């Protein structure tokens, strides 16, 4: 880079980083204040679980463009506030990391000492949420305390130019009413878009709901590749596209998503949600249905009659991946 301009580039990087930090701190402040408000109302026996759900629906009705205020997330805000309200020294720390990082820490860490450890770790090491999850799963806190209980083993780093690794959080984008970023590769995004178009072309019964549809289970967020509503079957249909060999756990994951949809998204007059798993590796294409165990044999037969034929989807998978591979080869 031309040395004459590096100072200007550094100014841009620093200002951008500061802007992201400011927005994130404001979001965490908001969640803290909402959590405190709900906590106080419940403590005074003025509110119950149904009221929090009504609040979520009221926000959605009055401000339909505002996201991130489902009843589940409102309960998370209450839990967040109650976790840290008696530990004022941690208040600045929770505002220096993203909401998703906070969710992972206050839901997975048992003691306040462990929470403090990982709050500092994320701030100093600019950990992504995946890296944070991995460190907690590997008992990094316990191993560090056993190895050296008197000092924190992380050294302060200079400003990480890729600060978005910490703050590239869907909740910030929801807060600012900006398009949600997708973490999957450009190839995966392209394949999903093509599969979405193909499914819509199969018949007028499929209505597109969302790509990367977020479902909340406990204090974790999960994303369904493609979600549709089928007018004939009167149910939600989730599609998961896996660019690798079929594994039973893929089907287990999809069933997990369907349970979340039926519990939190499906309306009373709708039928149980169904899923379609599409797997493609270099040797084969596998298409599997995921159906609720509560369905009667008659309903299962009806579902399969109106769903896209497996062979047709296998053929489309083959075309999609071969088309992408030949396109990449020609570049």
From TrEMBL:
UniProt cross-references to InterPro entries, sorted A to Z: PD-DEXK-like_domain, tRNA_endonuc-like_dom_sf, YhcG_C, YhcG_N
A GO molecular-function annotation: nucleic acid binding
A Pfam match is: YhcG_C
What residue stretches are annotated with the YhcG N-terminal domain? 7-143
Domain annotation YhcG PDDEXK nuclease: ranges = 165-317
What is the residue range of the signal peptide feature? none
Q: Which domain of life is it from?
A: Bacteria
Q: What is the protein name given in its UniProt record? A: Uncharacterized conserved protein
In its UniProt entry, the species of origin is given as Chryseobacterium indoltheticum
What taxonomic lineage is listed for the species of origin? Bacteria, Pseudomonadati, Bacteroidota, Flavobacteriia, Flavobacteriales
């Amino acid at each position: 880079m031309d040395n004459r301009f590096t100072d200007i580039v550094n100014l841009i990087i620093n200002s951008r980083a500061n802007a992201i930090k400011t927005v994130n701190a404001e979001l965490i402040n908001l969640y803290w204040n909402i959590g405190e408000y709900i906590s106080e109302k419940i403590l005074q026996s003025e509110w119950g679980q149904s009221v929090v759900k009504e609040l979520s629906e009221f926000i959605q009705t009055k401000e339909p463009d505002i996201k991130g205020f489902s009843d589940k997330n409102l309960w998370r805000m209450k839990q967040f506030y109650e976790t840290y309200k008696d530990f004022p020294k941690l208040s600045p720390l929770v505002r220096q990391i993203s909401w998703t990082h906070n969710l992972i820490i206050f839901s997975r860490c048992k003691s306040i000492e462990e929470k403090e450890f990982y709050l500092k770790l994320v701030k100093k090491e600019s950990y992504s949420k995946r890296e944070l999850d991995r460190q907690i799963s590997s008992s990094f806190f316990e191993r560090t305390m056993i190895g050296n209980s008197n000092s924190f083993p992380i050294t302060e780093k200079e400003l990480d130019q890729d600060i978005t690794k910490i703050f590239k959080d869907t909740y910030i984008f929801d807060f600012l009413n900006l398009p949600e970023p997708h973490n999957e590769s450009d190839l995966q995004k392209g394949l999903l878009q093509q599969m979405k178009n193909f499914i819509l072309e199969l018949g007028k019964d499929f209505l597109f709901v969302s790509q990367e549809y977020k479902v909340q289970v406990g204090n974790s967020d999960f994303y369904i590749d493609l979600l549709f509503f089928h007018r004939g079957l009167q149910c939600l249909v989730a599609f998961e596209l896996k660019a690798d060999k079929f594994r039973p756990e893929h089907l287990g994951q999809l069933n997990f998503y369907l349970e979340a949809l039926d519990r939190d998204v499906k309306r009373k007059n709708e039928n149980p949600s169904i899923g379609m798993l599409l797997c493609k590796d270099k040797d084969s294409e596998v298409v599997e249905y995921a159906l609720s165990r509560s369905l009667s044999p008659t309903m299962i037969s009806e579902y399969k009659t109106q769903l896209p034929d497996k062979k047709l989807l296998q053929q489309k998978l083959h075309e999609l991946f071969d088309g992408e591979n030949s396109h990449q080869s020609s570049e």
